[in-house]
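Re-run with default settings, no changes from the original entry. Doing this only to confirm the output is reproducible before filing.
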Amino acid sequence: METQNTSIREHQEGLIMRLRKPYRHLFSLFILSLTFFFTRCSLDVNDPNSASEESVLTTPVGVTSLAVGIQQFYATNVFHRQVFVTAVTSREMAVNNTFANLVELELGGQDLSGDNESLIGWWSNAYKVIGMAEDLIENTPKVKMDPGTKSGIIALAKLLKAMTIGGLAMGWEKLPITTDRNGKAAFVTRQAALQEAVRLLDEAVDEISNTPPSQEFLSGILNKGMDLQNTINAFRARFKLLIGDNAGALAAAGSVDLTAASTFVYDDLNQNPFWNNTLVTPNYAPRDFFGVPYPDADTSDARLAFFMNKADLQSNPHKYPIDSWNSPFYASATASVPVYVPGEMHLIMAEANLNMGDLTAAINHINAVRTKNPADDPFGIGANLAPYTGPETVEAVKAELFRQRAAELFGQGLRLDDARRLGQPGPDPDDPFQRNRNFYPYPSNERQNNPNTPQDPDL
């Protein structure tokens, strides 16, 4: 057993080192190259020196190494791209650099094309995660290993695939939900994609309920900051809400432990990309008052000081009012970042109740977020405000829900979908408080390689 564990550690350490390559889509590493043999979607990555799928994913070492690697790859290559791209589009953050692709992203509208490097980077890296997850889902059941280790890896793979698909559905009207070896993946509507994410998450719940994850998985494979069960249920709640399953969203959100923290953990080898894009290279800056129009902003909200330092600054090049960063999640190369924040569960339950016509319950959940003291939140996020006293109408409560989501969920990559779903005005590329697009054009590399790529939306 010691020999096998040493072998696993050696493979994991090698994987970690290789994941540090500055251009991660040019993989020359053994374990990730096996996942890109598929060249599904528009990917075309081949390495003649890499191991074959047969010699790697048929072993516990290969499956375990890939399970470690997929978590690190998502945390360092996908999540921050979703956050920053959608934050700029929704006016949550401002571009603070004159790089052409960032300027184009902030201009939005017809100025944003499928050639944009930010869109290409998000899309391409997301489908690498989806491909890795599919390899784990397909091959792990065939490998002889502890049943609890096996169930943990399968549930983790389904979680990461669901998170990635759901994230892409925040930005695109249509998208593939599987990869394709021939580069011709079929596209489905975002509603169908979100339904697939929910299906995967429901299966993940069953997986770990029927066979609880082993200690080997929990202590040696799962990212040490990740709370698997609560994360699965949190994303189930999020995506069930988005597909209109209000009762399911209420149940899933209610099952999440609000005292638990689930994080992406970074280290010197796998550094925090949020820190790198905000403090090392100031590509992005927080908009004043979370980017909410000033008449709607509450200057006494304690979450302002949590995320940003009040400053009389303007972004470059578009001169939007910005503050400086104070987010503890972006503070250093090794700072941890929430996978989700617990306050989202109350806001999901508020919206689900609102959709079901229960204004009183919706307001009660909003107040749970408004009155929360920072000391009562596992991340220290708390508004410390008085209860809601506005009109008790659907439109007024929906507007308040948007304001609370803007503050509580700042930097979680959810604002663009929130703005569409909760009836915010827009899109208007010329208004600095309205989203500059509804959905993104399809990346040019996907269009060049995949004949199934739909027409781009107008906005």
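The chain has 19 helices and eight strands. Strands lie at 93-95, 174-175, 188-189, 263-264, 284-286, 308-314, 321-325, 337-338.
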